[in-house]
C-alpha cells in the first residue's frame, strides 16, 4: 500500500485517483450513518421520522457520489447533469404530493371490491 | 484521418480509431455514463413518485406492511452493499495505478458482496412467498405454507363484507335502505351524503366480527383485525422497487464478471481503465438507490 501511494498521486493522464485512505474513511462514515439511521428509527419523533431518515440517507448519498464516484474531483458538468436529474425527481414528487393531500379526506373506506371478493372466498 | 489506428503514431491499441486522443475517449465515455446515471435516477424517480403518493394517501398501509420486513436482514444488506461499494472504489484506484492484483481482488470482493446481497434478498423474498404475501390480489389467496399463526376457526377480518354502492341518501340503517331482510349484517360505516363523488358513496356492511385474545402480532397478516384495507398495496410497491433494484444488482454481477475477465487478461493499466471506472459508477448508483430504499421500506 505504501509503494502504491507514491505513484502519480492524483495526477494521472485522465481521471483522478482517490487515495485508499479517503475511500476507507468514506466507507466507515457510511457504516456509522447506517447504524445511526437504524438507531434513530427506534424512537418515535412522529411526523419527523421520515425526514430524519431521509436526511441521513441524503448525507450517505452525498458521500457515495462525492468520494466513491469521484464527483468532487470530476468535471462540474457531470455534477450538473446528475443534480438536474435529482432536481426533476424532487419536482415530480412535490407536485404529485400537492394533489395527493387534497383528496385524502374523500376516500371511500374499506377494501377495494376485488379484495372483498377474494376475502369472501377465503372466509368460507 | 485516412491512416489506420495501428499505424498512427501515438495511437495506442485501446484507443478506438474514431478518437484523436485517449483523453477525448475517456471524457466522452464518462459523460455518456453520467447521462445514463441521470436516466437511472429518473427511472427510479417514477417509482419514488408512486411511493410518495401511495404513502401520502395510505400511511397506515406502510406502517402495517413494514412490520413484516426483517429490519436486521435489511440492515445487513445495507452494510454488505456499502462494503462492496468500498471495494469497488478501491478496485478503481488500483486500476488507475496499474495494480492488476489489487484490481482483481477488489473486483472479486465486490462480486462477493453482490452475491451476498442477492442471497439475503432471496431468503427475504422466499419467506414472503411462503407466507402468501404476493403483490396484487394474490395477496388474498389462501396461504399454503405459513410460519405465522393461522386459526381456521377464526374469521378473516373483512371477509363477508358487502360493499354496496348507494345513491345520495339520508338513510342511517338497513331498514331505511330497504335491503332484503335475509342479509344478516351489521352497519359499520355510512359515508355521509354529499361526500365523495356524487352518487358513488359506498356503504360498507359487515358480519359481526368475533373478538379474540390471539396475540395479534403473531397472527398471519390476513387474520389480524388491525389489518388496514388494501394491505397488499405495500407489498406491490415493495416488490416493484426492491425487484427493480435487485435486477440492477444482477446486472452489476454481469458487469463485474466482464471486468474481471478483462483484468485477468491484463486489458487494463494506468493509461486505460475506463471500463473499470464506468462499471464502478454503475455499481455506486445501485448502492445509492438502496441507501434510500432501506429506510423507506424497513425503517417505518
Question: What would you note in describing this structure?
Answer:
- The complex is a heterodimer of chains A (124) and B (300).
- Chain A has 5 helices and no strands.
- Chain A is mostly helical and 124 residues long.
- Chain A has 2 domains: 1-74; 75-124, no CATH class.
- In chain A, helix 2 (20-40) packs antiparallel against helix 3 (48-68).
- Chain A is elongated and about 70 Å long.
- The model of chain A is unreliable at 1-8 (pLDDT under 50).
- Chain B has 300 residues and is mainly alpha-helical.
- Chain B folds into 2 domains: 23-142 and 231-298, Up-down Bundle (Four Helix Bundle (Hemerythrin (Met), subunit A)), CATH 1.20.120; 162-208, no CATH class.
- Chain B has 7 helices and 3 strands; from the N terminus they run H-H-H-H-E-H-E-E-H-H.
- Chain B has helices at 22-57, 59-66, 71-96, 100-131, 174-177, 232-264, 274-298, and strands spanning 162-165, 186-190, 202-206.
- Chain B has a 3-stranded antiparallel sheet, with no helix packed on it.
- The longest helix of chain B is centred in the N-terminal third of the chain and has 36 residues, at 22-57.
- Chain B is elongated.
- The termini of chain B are far apart.
- Mean pLDDT of chain B is 80; it is low at 1-7 and 181-214.
- Chains A and B meet through helix 2, helix 3, helix 4 and helix 5 of A and helix 1, helix 3 and helix 7 of B.
Spell the H/E element sequence of chain B: HHHHEHEEHH
Please estimate the helix content of chain A: 55-70%
Q: Which structural category do the helix and sheet elements of chain B fall into?
A: mainly alpha
Give the beta-strand count of chain B. 3
Amino acid at each position: 500500500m505504501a509503494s502504491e501511494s507514491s505513484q502519480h498521486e492524483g495526477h494521472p493522464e485522465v481521471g483522478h485517483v482517490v487515495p485508499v485512505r479517503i475511500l476507507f474513511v468514506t466507507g466507515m462514515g457510511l457504516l456509522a450513518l447506517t447504524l445511526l439511521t437504524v438507531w434513530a428509527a427506534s424512537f418515535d419523533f412522529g411526523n419527523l421520522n421520515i425526514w430524519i431518515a431521509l436526511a441521513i440517507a441524503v448525507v450517505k448519498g452525498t458521500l457515495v457520489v462525492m468520494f466513491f464516484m469521484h464527483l468532487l474531483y470530476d468535471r462540474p458538468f457531470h455534477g450538473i447533469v446528475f443534480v438536474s436529474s435529482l432536481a426533476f425527481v424532487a419536482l415530480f414528487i412535490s407536485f404529485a404530493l400537492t394533489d395527493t393531500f387534497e383528496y385524502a379526506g374523500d376516500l371511500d373506506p374499506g377494501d377495494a371490491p376485488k379484495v372483498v371478493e377474494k376475502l369472501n372466498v377465503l372466509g368460507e | 484521418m485516412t491512416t489506420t489506428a495501428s499505424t498512427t503514431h501515438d495511437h495506442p491499441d485501446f484507443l478506438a480509431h474514431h478518437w484523436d486522443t485517449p483523453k477525448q475517449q475517456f471524457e466522452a465515455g464518462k459523460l455518456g455514463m453520467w447521462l445514463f446515471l441521470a436516466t437511472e435516477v429518473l427511472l427510479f424517480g417514477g417509482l419514488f413518485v408512486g411511493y410518495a403518493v401511495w404513502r401520502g394517501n395510505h400511511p397506515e398501509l406502510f406502517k402495517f406492511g413494514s412490520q413484516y420486513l426483517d429490519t436486521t436482514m435489511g440492515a445487513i444488506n445495507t452494510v454488505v452493499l456499502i462494503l462492496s461499494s468500498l471495494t469497488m472504489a478501491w478496485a478503481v484506484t488500483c486500476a488507475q495505478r496499474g495494480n492488476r492484483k489489487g484490481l482483481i481482488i477488489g473486483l472479486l470482493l465486490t462480486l462477493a458482496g453482490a452475491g451476498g446481497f442477492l442471497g439475503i434478498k432471496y431468503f427475504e423474498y422466499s419467506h414472503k412467498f411462503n407466507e402468501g404475501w404476493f403483490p396484487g390480489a394474490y395477496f388474498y389467496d389462501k396461504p399454503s405454507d405459513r410460519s405465522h399463526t393461522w386459526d381456521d376457526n377464526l374469521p378473516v377480518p373483512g371477509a363477508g363484507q358487502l360493499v354496496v354502492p348507494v345513491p345520495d341518501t339520508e338513510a342511517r340503517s338497513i331498514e331505511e335502505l330497504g335491503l332484503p331482510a335475509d342479509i344478516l349484517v351489521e352497519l359499520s360505516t355510512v359515508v355521509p351524503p354529499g361526500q365523495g363523488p356524487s352518487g358513488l358513496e359506498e356503504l360498507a356492511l359487515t358480519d359481526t366480527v368475533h373478538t379474540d385474545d390471539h396475540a395479534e402480532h403473531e397472527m398471519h397478516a390476513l387474520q389480524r383485525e388491525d389489518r388496514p384495507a388494501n394491505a397488499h398495496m405495500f407489498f406491490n410497491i415493495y416488490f416493484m422497487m426492491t425487484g427493480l433494484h435487485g435486477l440492477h444488482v444482477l446486472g452489476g454481477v454481469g458487469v463485474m464478471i466482464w471486468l474481471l475477465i478483462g483484468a485477468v487478461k491484463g486489458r487494463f493499466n494506468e493509461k486505460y481503465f475506463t471500463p473499470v471506472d464506468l462499471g464502478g459508477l454503475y455499481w455506486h448508483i445501485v448502492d445509492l438507490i438502496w441507501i434510500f430504499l432501506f429506510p423507506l421500506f424497513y425503517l417505518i
